[in-house]
Amino acid sequence: MRIECFLSQGCASREALEANIKEALSLEGVQAQLNFQVIGEDEARRLGIPGSPTVFLEGRDLEGLRVLEGTVS
Question: How many other C-beta atoms are found inside a 10 Å radius of the C-beta of residue 60?
Fold first, then answer.
């Protein structure tokens, strides 16, 4: 699994985001390639990134992915 996190310069959420992702992966026993990338406004527009932080899972914005019923407690 590939997880890409896009952040603006100085985004205060990086540490909490990284800790939350690593905890979720550990709890589920999932291995993933985790990448953090600081990007500017121009690159964010080009990639269609609406805000910071934005998380892509396998190249798709996590915000737009459907959660399967019964998988969230």
Answer: 10
Beta bridge partners of 62: none
Q: What is the pLDDT along the chain (73 residues), one digit of tens a residue?
A: 999 999 999 999 999 999 999 999 999 999 999 999 999 999 999 988 888 999 999 988 888 666 655 554 4
At 32, list the tokens: 């993933």
Domain that holds residue 58: 2-64
Contact 60, 29 (CB under 8 A): no
Q: What token pair was written down for 28?
A: 């589920």
- 43: domain CATH number? 3.40.30
Asked if the structure places residue 40 within a domain, the reply is yes
